[in-house]
Specification:
It contains three helices and five strands. The protein has about 150 residues and is α+β, with helices and mostly antiparallel strands. It has a single domain, classed as Roll (Nuclear Transport Factor 2, Chain: A). The strands form two sheets. It has a three-stranded antiparallel beta sheet with strand order 3-4-5, covered by helices on one side. The chain has a two-stranded antiparallel ribbon with strand order 1-2. The longest helix is centred in the middle third of the chain and has 15 residues. The relative contact order is 0.14. The N terminus is likely disordered.
Length: about 150
């Protein structure tokens, strides 16, 4: 039966049916700085995924049109720093957001530092870029103004 499918495809002796490919990831640099040629800079591979994860974590629910649950929604924790809540809730929120919305990253570790006296939260995320061995560490700081 496998021979029948191969003959129908017409590639029995040309190449194997199962192939692998690697992808290059590329995004626009959100600083929008011009190159001397007039074009804008691009971020590639790990830098592109790092920028995407940072934007994901800093986006609140409802900010992206037609995607009401997109984002990490971390700003809501800033207004309850003095109340009792768990760091595990923040870690869970971050892991869920990255797993659901960023298919190019695998979360390896998350560390959360709550600083209620300074009205801020610092988040450290370690993740691996899919199809590479590159491990990236991202630090995001959220602060509430008085």
């Amino acid at each position: 039966m496998a021979r029948v499918f191969s003959q129908e495809d017409g590639n029995l002796s040309v190449r194997p049916i199962i192939t692998s490919r690697s992808r290059a990831y590329a995004d626009i640099d959100l600083s929008f700085v011009n190159k001397p040629s007039g074009d804008i800079f691009k971020k590639t591979d790990g830098a592109a995924v790092k920028q995407a994860v940072k934007n994901l974590l800093l986006t609140n629910h409802g900010e992206k049109p037609f995607a009401p649950y997109f984002g990490g929604d971390l700003n809501r924790f800033l207004f309850s720093l003095s109340e009792d809540f768990d760091e595990l809730e923040i870690k869970d929120r971050i892991a869920t957001a990255i797993n659901n919305e960023e298919p190019r990253a695998i979360v390896l570790g998350i560390k959360v530092n709550l600083l209620p006296d300074q009205n801020s939260v610092r988040v450290y995320v370690r993740f691996q870029v899919i199809n590479t061995e590159e491990v990236i560490e991202l630090s995001v700081s959220l602060a509430r103004l008085r």
